[in-house]
Design goal:
InterPro entries: NADH_UbQ_OxRdtase_chain4L/K, NUOK/Mnh_C1-like. 73% of the residues lie in helices and 0% in strands. The protein is built from 3 helices and no strands. It has helices at residues 3-21, 26-51, 59-85.
Length: 98
């Protein structure tokens, strides 16, 4: 395993651990999701360079598109939940109550 692979795997793992253990604010969960998407984007961008192929060059652009949509949806949920509940603490949200 090269140092480049190790850095991508460690960035993704640290983001997943941050998402699993730091669940106090919605914004921190969204930042962890964005860092996971960023590490996957960088890994997909470096993959055609390492394999010397140009056939999968569209995958990073598609990943970046989905990441932008996910960020916009997450920020819209953050604004809506802050307006209705008064804060972005995840323990205030009750998904069973409509």
């Amino acid at each position: 395993m090269t140092l480049l692979h190790l850095s991508f795997y460690s960035a993704f793992t640290l983001s997943a651990l941050g998402l699993a253990f730091h669940r106090t604010h919605l914004i921190s969960a969204l930042l962890c999701l964005e860092s996971m998407m960023l590490s996957m984007y960088v890994a997909l961008s470096m993959w055609p360079i390492q394999t010397q192929s140009s056939s999968s060059a569209i995958l990073p652009i598609l990943m970046l598109t989905f990441s932008a949509c996910e960020a916009g949806t997450g920020l819209a949920l953050l604004v809506a939940s802050t307006r209705t509940h008064g804060s972005d603490h995840l323990h205030n949200f009750n998904l069973l109550r409509c």
